[in-house]
Amino acid sequence: MSDSWDEYAFDWDANKDAKAYAENAFETLSDVVNFNNINILDFGCGTGLLTEKLSPVANQIVALDSSQKMIDVLNDKKLINVSTLSTFLSKESIRTNHLLHDKFDLIVASSVCSFLPNYESTLILLKSLLTKNGIFVQWDWLAQEEGSRTGLTNRRVQSALESAGFNTVNLTQPFSLESSKGSMDVLMASAKNA
Ligand SMILES: C[S@@+](CC[C@H](N)C(=O)[O-])C[C@H]1O[C@@H](n2cnc3c(N)ncnc32)[C@H](O)[C@@H]1O
């Protein structure tokens, strides 16, 4: 399967902004999640910059990405409790991949959702993969207005999570990163499948 993200895979881990993003995401995650023998889905895992940090504190991780080349880089890291899946998330891929048949205590999506053409419907699929009281957490660049080329607005994220049926939605802006465009804020949303 060819994917537009394939071309970024080889150099992704050398990107200091991508590394800083994953490090900050991991640090902020401990504020909302109790890492106690939990099973995690890393949705849009890329080369596994966040997966690597989650691996020592998780029971099992399924790392899913639509880019085979991103997954190839992650596979080379040989993380013992990580199984990988190169696929788009869909009803069909959930039905046919046994790695998606057991529910997850935590689903993370670090810098993924704003790139999805179907963010709202993907949330419904992700919610179906959570245990009762399981938690979904996403981080994305914060956009100030709808239709922005980069990121998502607080309003869209809140509304999408509520429409998907999540309870206890919590939105914060836990960190900012410097980029060529100046300082960019990151939105973090956590939501419970209660
Ligand atoms: C900005 S990268 C972030 C990668 C990783 N989460 C990280 O923090 O380093 C976005 C990733 O989302 C993946 N992606 C985009 N759309 C996807 C989809 N529909 N299903 C699965 N992965 C997707 C891309 O292949 C890419 O690896």
Structure in words:
By secondary structure, the protein is an alpha/beta fold. It is built from seven helices and seven strands, in the order H-H-E-H-E-H-E-H-E-H-E-H-E-E. The chain has one domain (6-192): Vaccinia Virus protein VP39 (Rossmann fold). A seven-stranded mixed sheet has the order 3-2-1-4-5-7-6. The termini are far apart. It binds S-adenosylmethionine (SAM).
Could you give a short description of this structure?
Helices cover 30% and strands 30% of the residues.
Mean pLDDT: 95
Helix content: 25-40%
Largest sheet: spatial strand order = 3-2-1-4-5-7-6
Annotated CATH topology: Rossmann fold
Question: Which ligands accompany this protein?
Answer: S-adenosylmethionine
With helices defined by DSSP (H or I, 4 residues minimum), what is the helix count?
7
**Approximately how much beta-strand content do the residues carry?**
25-35%
Residue runs with pLDDT of under 50 for 5 or more positions: none
CATH class: Alpha Beta
The CATH superfamily turns out to be Vaccinia Virus protein VP39
Radius of gyration: 15 Å
By CATH, the architecture is named: 3-Layer(aba) Sandwich
Indicate the topology.
Layout: H1 6-9, H2 16-29, E1 39-43, H3 49-54, E2 60-65, H4 68-76, E3 82-86, H5 91-96, E4 104-110, H6 119-128, E5 130-141, H7 154-163, E6 167-179, E7 182-192
Parallel strand pairs: 1-2, 1-4, 2-3, 4-5
Antiparallel strand pairs: 5-7, 6-7
Bound molecules: S-adenosylmethionine.
Features:
single chain; 194 residues; alpha/beta; Rossmann fold; seven-stranded mixed beta sheet; 7 helices; globular; binds S-adenosylmethionine
